[in-house]
Design brief:
Keywords: Signal. The chain has 321 residues and is mainly β. It is built from one helix and 25 strands.
Length: 321
């Protein structure tokens, strides 16, 4: 009886080993840098995918990404990709990859990972104003009451590392020592301005150090401070502190309808802008229970600005699938 138990234990142990060997997992240097199932890809570098275990045979596959759910694009076997490692490059962005393996009598297939060009997101800046202290004029010019702060944020802070912030449009595509437009000693992904200037930034990707981008000068924001007519109630000399003004919006990401989730609130104006600052949708007299149809928008990241009838201004980011 003891001999049989030892044999069964040995057999079970071997079966568990075989099962473990047939459960491939893909790894790469940049996998999980931000997203657990995505590789943040660098434009000028190759990336090597590999299995964490060794098998007898390999066949790598790829599937083109789409914003549609489910993804009905076919999985295609990559010719010649039959070793433990697979090298991908800039042309392989926005593809899913998986590998099928065999080991003895068993077969296995890895979960898919995606090579994403997220790190190539062009820099975009979001401006947050204190309600009642500003007036948007035109062409990126904003009239602001004296001492009222304006907060600027990089829309993709997780992508970029140290920033260089400007108070005027620089004459070159990258900052240099002594550049009069550079705001000294400011390297974070946010900056709060309290004086006149034309603001923007330059930053390099944290994961791809050679990838550096300047905010398009056309999207720099010019602040003109003064005692404007709408500033009548701000003459106390007290500095108004900025606050985060956000709404619950859902679903996010969305493929078609977007809802603003503050019950019984009405919005005098709702606008949606893309990451270049272009207005892509505007709606007046919006009710919270009404869905905003965004199905015609190109998949990507957007900012929705909601102005309530009470004068509150809310800013949210959302993703169009």
């Amino acid at each position: 009886m003891k001999t049989k138990l030892i044999f069964l234990t040995f057999l079970l142990f071997n079966l568990l080993i075989i099962k473990a060997q047939c459960d491939p997992t893909i790894t790469s240097p940049r996998l999980s840098a931000v997203f657990a199932d995505k590789i943040l890809f660098c434009e000028n570098e190759d990336e090597i995918l590999s299995t964490t275990q060794t098998y007898s045979t390999y066949q790598w596959y790829r599937q083109e990404w789409t914003w549609q759910t489910p993804n009905n694009n076919p999985w295609e076997a990559i010719p010649g990709a039959t070793s433990q490692q697979l090298t991908i490059n800039g042309g392989d962005q926005l593809y899913y990859f998986k590998v099928a393996v065999t080991q003895g009598d068993c077969t296995g297939e890895s979960p898919a990972v995606m090579a994403d060009g997220y790190v190539f997101a062009l820099p975009a800046m979001m401006s947050t104003f204190v309600p009642g202290t500003y007036e948007i004029v035109d062409g990126g010019i904003v009239h602001v009451c004296q001492e009222a702060p304006v907060k600027f944020d990089d829309v993709f802070p997780v992508v970029y590392g140290p920033h260089t912030w400007f108070k005027c449009v620089p004459g070159t595509t990258a900052p240099f020592t002594g550049d009069p437009c550079v705001i000294p000693n400011v390297t974070g992904d946010t900056y709060t301005a309290t004086e006149p200037g034309k603001y923007g930034f330059y930053a390099c990707s944290e994961y791809c150090p050679e990838l550096c981008r300047m905010l398009d000068p056309l999207t720099f924001v010019e602040l003109q401070y003064g005692e404007w007519d709408f500033c009548g109630n701000l003459g106390t000399g007290e500095v108004v502190k900025p606050k985060e003004n956000k709404l619950n919006i859902y679903p996010n990401p969305t493929a078609q309808f977007l809802y603003i989730g503050k019950e019984s609130e009405e919005y005098k104006e709702v606008t949606i802008i893309d990451m270049s600052g272009k207005l892509v949708l505007k709606k007046n007299d919006h009710q919270y229970r009404q869905g905003i149809d965004v199905s015609h928008l190109v998949p990507g990241n957007y900012i929705i600005i909601s102005k309530s009838v009470k004068g509150e201004v809310y800013k949210n980011k959302f993703i169009k699938k």
